[in-house]
Each structure stands twice: as C-alpha cells, then as structure tokens.
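Please decode residue identities from the backbone states below.
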C-alpha cells in the first residue's frame, strides 16, 4: 500500500471513530470497527461483531497521556506597591498661616496647637489603598484665645462635605470634632485646656 493510501486509511479511521464515539456516547472506553478485507471499507461494528469478510479493529476513545511539556518562561516579577498604605504624613509645627500651609498646626503668638508629647502619639494623617483618609495621634493647645482649627488637610485628603466625629480628650470627656470641606480639622468648643485624640477618625474623601 502506498503512503497516500496509508494516509487516507488513517484519516478514514479517525473520522469514523469520531462518528462512532459520538454515536455510542461516553460509557465505553473503546470503540469497535469492522474493516473489509477487500477494499478496506470501515463501518461501526454491530454489538462489537464483524462479518467473515471483515477484520475487527478496536480503538481507544482516549489515547495515553502525553509527556509533560517544557516549563514556560518565567514571568516578570509583580509588585504590590499599589495595595500598600502610604506612610503617615506628620503634621508639622506652626509655620505661619495654616490655611496657606496645609499639613501644619494652626495658631500664633504662643497660642499654638502641637503634639501632646511625650505621652501620646504624634498627629498625622494618611490614606489607605481603598482611598479612606485616616487621622491619628493626640493634639494639645494652649488655653486662652486659641483658634479652634487644629490643622488643615491638604487637597486630596478633604471630605466632599463637612463630617462630624466624637473624640475623647485627655481628661476623660468627649468633644465634637468637625472636618470641613475646606480641610479644616476643627473643634467647635474648647474651654480651658485643650487636648484631643484623633485616633480612629477616618472618612472617604
């Protein structure tokens, strides 16, 4: 048999096998075909039986598992920088007008806001990967004619509208803290000594 006839016979076996597998469903692990001794015509065996002038061919529905392929090239190293929280931005000491210098404490002439050190955490703010702004630390201020703005948040850290929070003081009571749309971290009423905790204050800009 020439190579062309061999090739055509192989193609015919594959085609008929596909039809046979579809016809018999998925219950059996093999398929039986009948090949005519003269001419080589193929047909699906009836009840796995072939005639006298045919040869029985049994083929598997699924061939043996091939060898494992070669490993693909190593991918580029990923980065998780986009899911890391940014570092805390510390509120700096008073350096003039806090409205024109966001991120600095408000006050002037000795009537300043500052960190309630060394017993409490310094005041700062930061934004997490979800975009939520967090405040932390404890701020204290001099009594008297002190302004009620503690510091001003920079653009990108300000709420869309005024937010209100209840925060503890250093003396065991509580005060209302407002964060205004313009960024001012504001305490409406502060008689006497001023010392408030910002820990746990968070909001979505």
């Amino acid at each position: 048999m020439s190579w062309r006839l061999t090739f055509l016979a192989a193609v015919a076996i594959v085609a008929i096998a596909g039809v046979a597998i579809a016809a018999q469903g998925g219950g059996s692990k093999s398929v039986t075909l009948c090949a005519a001794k003269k001419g080589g015509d193929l047909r699906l065996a009836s009840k796995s039986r072939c005639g006298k002038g045919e040869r029985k061919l049994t083929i598997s529905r699924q061939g043996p598992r091939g060898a494992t392929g070669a490993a693909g090239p190593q991918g580029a190293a990923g980065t998780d920088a986009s899911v890391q929280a940014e570092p805390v931005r510390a509120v700096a000491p008073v350096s003039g007008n806090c409205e024109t210098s966001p991120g600095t404490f408000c006050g002037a002439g000795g009537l300043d806001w500052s960190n309630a050190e060394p017993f409490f955490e310094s005041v700062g703010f930061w934004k997490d990967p979800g975009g939520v702004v967090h405040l932390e630390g404890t701020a204290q201020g001099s009594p008297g004619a002190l302004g009620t703005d503690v510091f001003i948040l920079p653009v990108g850290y300000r709420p869309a509208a005024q937010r209100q929070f209840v925060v503890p003081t250093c003396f065991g009571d509580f005060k209302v803290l407002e964060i205004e749309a313009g960024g001012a971290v504001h305490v409406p009423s502060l008689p006497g000594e001023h010392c408030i905790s910002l820990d746990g204050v968070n909001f979505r800009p």
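Observation: The chain has a mean pLDDT of 80.
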